[in-house]
Amino acid sequence: MDMSSHMTHYMELLMTNQPWNLIIYMAVPVILAEIIAISELYLLFTGKNSGAIKTLSTTSGIVVGWYFLGIFINLLLTAVIPLTTSNGWRGIADVIAVGFYLLGVIPLFGIALLRMNLIASAVSQRDRNKLHAIFVGIFLVVAHIAMIFGMVDPHVLSSAKTV
């Protein structure tokens, strides 16, 4: 029995080429997003808006945004388009897992654009901070939905019967 047919493409991607795919597709973006979230909480509670922690958050935001844009383009071209054209999806859980993972590009690249002053540059720092927090929150939601559906046997939500 081929076990890969009992896991989503999301999970298969993370399990293939261990540990490199796990590091490239999960660890790097999640660690950078966590650095951003934790450093922004520190800045919020200390009232600081400059210094090493602010620089760390800004740098992490720019790096993760561009990094994940590369992941998005790569997976779109090498996985999503081929799976869609060949009808290779393993059910709705598979589509949800991969789709929500790739949706992470919106908040992460949004953070990069915000940190590079390419969006919302004319608004107050408070409004920029709000937008930043919204982007972090959106990333947390889409990443967790991707992880949850990624761990489901894709046949559980499928109408197809498996043996």
Q: Beta-sheet strand percentage? A: under 5%
Radius of gyration: 18 Å
- String of helices and strands: HHHHHH
Mean of pLDDT: 92
| Topology, number of strands | 0
Q: Please identify the structural class as seen in this structure.
A: mainly alpha
Separation, N- and C-terminal Cα atoms? 10 Å
What's the structural domain tally? 1
SS field, number of helical segments: 6
Query: What is the helix fraction of residues, given as a range?
Result: over 70%
Uncertain spans: none
Describe the global form: elongated
Describe the biggest sheet?
A: none
Can you offer a commentary on this structure?
This protein is an all-alpha fold. The protein has one domain (3-150). The chain is built from 6 helices and no strands. The chain has helices at residues 9-15, 20-46, 52-85, 92-103, 105-115, 125-150. The protein starts with 8 loop residues before the first helix and ends in a 13-residue tail after the last helix.
